[in-house]
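Reminder: ligand-aware prediction takes two inputs, not one.
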Amino acid sequence: MATTKQPKTTKKKTTPSKSTQTKNKAEQFEYKAEMKQLLHLIVHSLYTHPEIFLRELISNASDALNKIRFRMLTDTDVLDPDASLRITVELDSKKQTFSIEDSGDGMTKDDLINEIGTVAKSGTVEFLKQMQKNDKPLDGNLIGQFGVGFYSVFMVTDNVTIETRHADKNSTGYRWVSSGEGKFTVEEIDKKTRGTKVSFKLKKEHQDFSEEFRVKNTIKKYSNFVDFPIFVDKEEVNRVSAVWHQQKNKVKEEELTEFYKFISNDFNAPLGHLHLSLEGAVNFKALIFLPETAPETFMREHLEKSLQLYSNKIFIQDDCKELLPEYLRFLKGVVDTEDLPLNVSREVTQSSPVMMKIKNVLVSKILAWFGDLAKNDKGKYDKFYKNFGPIFKTGVNSDFANKEKLIELLRFETTKTQKGELSSLKEYVSRMTKDQKEIYYISGEHRESIERNPNLEYFAKNGIEVLLLSDPFDVFIVPGLNEYDKKPVQSIDKADLDLKEDKKDGKKKELGKDVAKSLIEVFKKTLGDKVEDVIASKRLVDSAATLVVGKEGMDKQMEKMMQMMNKDYAGSKKILEINLSHPLIKNLGKKLIADDTDAVLRSSMMQLYEGALLIEGSLTSPNEYVTRMTELMVEATK
Ligand code: ADP
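Here is what comes back for the chain with adenosine-5'-diphosphate:
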């Protein structure tokens, strides 16, 4: 079974330069600079998990075996067509040597030069350097998630030999030797059999890897589910079983966890799993895992290693993109179907109606599984949602067929939940009061800043619950919902909210109508085209002023993101609402009556407007703001 393979196309070719020809006809090559850096980092930083080398070598052997098995489905005209597909490890604890041999597809001279001298995953070197710089230990999980490939072998040895012969009948054998210090040699050898053998002498401090006990245990830990028998000194050590083919109730939890760790390279147990066996219009078995944690940002590309496709227990391809939509690609697992022809190619899987059918069934089963989880194990569901929510919720916009189900699976913090506690829309609706006709939301960078938003004052005072959207992806989804359970979904930042006047504790004394009208006129003149309008507010309780969005305006948080992406994007003008019962506004009213040319009047208005911008996080001229404030303070302290 393949584990960490990257599709060939994404490989960065770093063909090394050929330098000299040595006496015994071995050609000498030099690694590219990037490779040298990687080697240095491997030897000096990765020491904490030296046993990883074994997993990497076995994974390479298993990939090579998968390739030849796949080729032989349609083409048996290869070298050693009857050779058994297996991996053989030989140890000599006296001489402290280690070797691993496979009967896979082998390598040509070009492969040895181009594939082995290559940093497989772009960004690997940068990432490792960063980790080293930050003094972050490369713990098992990190190494587990990306793997350093063949070169991890230099953690345990100073000198490696590869002997290989490609599966084509007319191929030649080659020996590759390197001390990992910038150079390697390649020479022709007389090798009779197909496949690859990697051998070396262990460094003193790692001689335990020449002992059977140590090696067998390590193989059981990391490679138990490799789909080919692994022999250590002639004894078979791995289990070789297709876990997904077993009956659901017969598979033990530990076995599933072990299998998950094997296919995901995750060191943690999964958060949950889904085991399917379907017969009927479409036939397939699947074992799908939900990881407990999301990978680091750098690792996002590893989200791409989602599902492996098998055809009746035979490995067809890794990371089969056709099986899951983008928003579910954080899941790991295996899908095995008999409905595909055995000699299926990538092109076939891409356009096959069978794949489409499997995908549709799979997605609806997965969403039902999440639904169960949400209902029966809220703790687990919320954990999943916090980790993968940002990717998962994008499904609402992209998967039209499952939109309703996905909306039920959305979660939010609200003004009535504790920090970190999540609520569904259904739960929100169940808490709505009789008079409440709409579902309200407000967006912002994080809970604390949203909670300070003056636009919430009315809702807090009247006990109306508001969804708090602090995940950037929320603003791409919630405004588009329009309604849920026949209730309009409304941003409380909008100007045209239908808010009831405050009856409970009687109306606070407001500014007289005529003065208010004149004051608003002066506000409009002072602010000019900075705002779309100035109006009296129904929503403010404690604050003097706030900015809201016009009828056609975009969500403020969304607008901020648009501005981040495009510096020239100006955004729409806002409406300034003023609180006619606030002492400051009332004082401004008095000033207006006394002397409508008073400079303090206009400075205060400007200051109120910019203060509202500041709260929103969109004030671009802090200098002017502070200068004006100083002037006002000078006035006040005269
Ligand atoms: P990765 O396995 O992530 O591609 P490696 O450095 O481990 O990176 O291996 C590089 C490449 O060398 C493989 O992709 C494969 O083409 C080739 N290779 C390594 N080991 C073997 C092997 N045992 N048999 C055939 N090819 C191999």
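Residues 412-491 form a domain with the Rossmann fold fold (CATH 3.40.50.11260). The pocket of adenosine-5'-diphosphate is lined by residues 4-6, 56, 60-61, 64, 102, 104-107, 111, 115-116, 120, 149-150, 196 (CB under 6 Å). We will return to this case in the review session.
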